[in-house]
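User: ok so my PI wants both of these folded by tonight, can you help

Assistant: No problem, let's get them done. Here's the first:
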Amino acid sequence: MPAFCTVSFESCRPADCIPSMTLAPPDFLAPLLKRPVAVLGGGVSGQAVGEVLTLLGACGEVFDEKPGAGTAQIFTLAEARQHPLVIFSPGFAPGHAWLQAARAAGCTCLGELDFASLFWRGRLVAVTGTNGKTTLTEFLTHALTTAGGEAYAAGNIGFPLSRLITFRRDPDADTIAVCEVSSFQAETLRHLHADATLWTNFAEDHLERHPGLEAYFAAKWNLGAHTRPGALFAGTSVQRFAREFGRDLPPGAGVSSEGAAPDPQLEGTIFADYPQRENVLLALAWWRHEGRPAGELYGAARTFKLGRHRLTRIGEFRGVSFWNDSKATNFHAVEAALASFPGPVHLIAGGRSKGGDLSAFIRRIAGKIKHAWLIGETRTALAGHCAASRIPHTVCDTLEAAVRGAHAAAQPGDQIVLSPAFASFDMFRSYTDRGDQFEKLVSNLGTTSTFQ
C-alpha cells in the first residue's frame, strides 16, 4: 500500500491561505498514529486526510470500493486489525460493512470532519440544513471577510476542513472556519465542538441513506448537541419538526425564518425574496448574537454573488427563458424554485432517487408545471405520477433531448427550468457537471437554424 508521506498538495492551495509550522495531535490520538492509518474513501475528503497525516509524520493506506491507483478495494476484519485508527469519508454510512469490521477489530473510527476538528485552533461556525447551506456558508464567509475578519469556507462545500488544516495550521483565535455540515457528517460526530450552528431548514431528503425522516432529523440534531450552549440558531421548519419528533430546542434557538415581511434593506439583493431570504435571516441572528453591527451584514448582502447552478437565468432565445437550478437535488428545493415563478413552467427533472414520497411531491407541484421533461433513473416513475396528476410530460433518454424538446414546445414568455429534485450521479459526475452540460446545450441552441 502507498503511504501518504509523499503526497503533494501544492496544486490545490488557495492564494489567500497561509501555511505555518506546527501541527500536533491530541494525546489520545498520538499513539494511534504510530501505525498506518486506514483512510476509507479516496476522494476529496480522503485526499485531504492524507495531507494532514503527511504533516503529522504519519502514514495512511487508502481503501476505496472504486478501482483507483494506490487504493485497495477490500477492507475486512484482517485489514482492520492492522490499523488502530480508521478515518472515513462522509459517503460511508455508520452501518457500512467496512466500518463494522473496524469496530469489531477495536479500531478508533473518526469521520473526516471530526478528525480535522481536533486540529483546528480557530473558531468554527457550522452551517447545516436541507437547503441553502452552501449559499449561507459562502455568504457568511463573504460577510466576515468584507467586515475585515479572517474567514474560510470549508466542509461539505467541497473544501474539506482537513484541507484547511494543512493551509492554516496556526490560525488566530478569531479566525473563523465557516463549515458546511451535511447529515452524513453530523451523524457520527464525537469530538467537534462548534462555536455556533446555523440550521436553516428541514425537509424530506437523503432517505436513501437515513432509515426515515426522524433519523435524518436526528443526524442533524447531533450537530446541535456539539454546539456551544446558547449558540444554536434554527429556522422555522426546524422548530416545527423538533416539536413533531418530541425534541426541545434550547431557549432562544428559534429564528422566525418563514413569512417575514419584506426588508427594504435587502431590496435589489438575492436575499430580497424566499428562499434566499431565509439564509440572511439566519445569518443576521448569529451576527447580532456576536454583537456585530447589522449594517455590515446588509452591506455584504449587496455585494454578494450567488454561486452557479442555483436558480440562475442563463439565457433567452426567441422570448423563451432558460434557468439553471441543477443544485436542486431534493423536493423542497424544487418547490422553492417553482414558487418564484408567477406561472407554470417547463420543468426538466429527474435523476437518481434519494427516497421520499414521490407521489406527494408531484401532487404539490402539479399546478406549477406546464410540461415536465423527465430524465434519469427516476424518469419512468415520475411519468407514472405525472400521468396520475394529469401533468403533460415527456420521457427523455438524455438531457439534450429534454432541452431540445422543451425548447421546441415552448412559446414566447415561457420559462424552461432545470430543477431536477434528484441526485445527478446516474448520468453526470456531479450537479455541477449536470448544470454545465445544461448550459452548454442551451448555448448550442443559439447556433441552430431555429434562431436565424
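One down. Here's the second:
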Amino acid sequence: MAKVDVGDQAPSFELPGTGGRTYSLADYSGQGVILAFYPGDFTRVCTQQFCSYRDNATRLEGLGVDVLGISPQSVESHERWAEEQRLQIPLLADEDLTVAKSYGVVGWASPLGKLVGLPATSGGSYVQRSVFVVDGDGIVRYRHSSRTGAGFQSVDDLERAVGSLPEHRGPNPVR
C-alpha cells in the first residue's frame, strides 16, 4: 500500500455517497477538494469531527473547496448517521477500502484499537483518520494522518491548509 504525500498526484476515485449520487475526484477538477477519511459512522470522535464541520458550515463554505467524508460503512449507514446528526457534508462509502488503500490510510486494528472502540472491517483493518487537501490540478497540497484517530483536524486546521494553497489568500479563494 503506497502512501500519498504532499506533491503527489491524488489517486482518482469514484464512490457512491449520500444524496443518491456518485462522487469522483474528477468532479473537483479546477476547484480542489478536502478529503476527510474517518474510521466510522456513529463513533464518538467521528461524530465530534463531523458535527464540528456542521456547526462551522459557513466557515467551510468560505474556503472555496468542498469537503467529502470517506469511510468503509455503507451509504445506508452514512444516510442514517447524517440524518441523526444533521450532517451536510457528503459521506462516501469505500466499503472495500480501495480508495483508503490508494491513499495509504489503512491500518491494522490491533487488540488495543478494538478496546478503545476503533471500528475494524471484517478483515481486521481500519481507516486512519486523515485529511488531504487536493488542489484543482489534482495534486495533494496537504496531508495529515492519525494512527490512533483520537483527535481530528479542526476547521481552523482546514482553513490554514487551504489558505496555504498558491491560489488562495486567506480563507476565501482568489478567482
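Residues 169-175 have pLDDT under 50 and may be disordered. The chain has six helices and eleven strands. Good luck tonight!
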